[in-house]
Write a structure and sequence with these properties.
globular, about 15% strand, 11 helices, 10 strands, alpha/beta, four-stranded parallel beta sheet, six-stranded parallel beta sheet
Amino acid sequence: MENNQPIGIFDSGIGGTSIWQEIHQLLPNEKTIYLADSKNAPYGQKSKQEIINLSMKNTDFLLQMNCKLIVVACNTATTNAIQELRAKYNVPFIGIEPAIKPAATNSKTQTIGILATKGTLNSELFHKATEMYQDTTIIEQVGHGLVQLIESGQINSAEMHALLQSYLQPMIDANIDYLVLGCSHYPYLIPQIKKILPDHIQIIDSGQAVARQTQKVLEEKVGISNLKQPEPVFYTNTNPKVVSEILGGKYHVEEIDF
């Protein structure tokens, strides 16, 4: 089944580009439209209804661009709004949730850490996921301030290192052997995180799993593109330089008000 319409991807800023990169690598012939709602970042501190409203606004924009499938490349938006999105729109949605299952299943110490936003950790979907692993100690940590520093280009700053040290040290002390990154912004912090964590602690994020699920839904329900490596499209409602830099300056990023 052939379908050359684009895949739409949105996030509360630049973090979802980590998901976009996995999708683009796995599916290079799919046209992608990425929407960075940086003006409203971070979503993790907003109310559930605010997150739903923003997610619908982003979806409306992407559907106007004729997208065949929407990837919600934001943990907070997935855990708070994806049920409402699926109920309202007649298009497949791929969500992103903290990868608790592989961490809890493979943990030898039966203790794992989760670094996520307040919105994700407080969500009903997250609580349902953690309830399945009663035998595993799950240490939750809200990543206060991390998204703001990433959005302002301060990934390698002293302030970032100090915040990560304060968030990760209690997990190290509690003997975790897996750290789950529960925000699509956080994979950009992996080099910083590795400087703090002992080598035996494994880091898990959801990017590859989301890309594989996207491929599966395209093959089974929507249709695969036969375009030859189309140029991806990036939109942001703040300074396009931030998105461009996180992508290594390879792509044009257009600033629009949405």
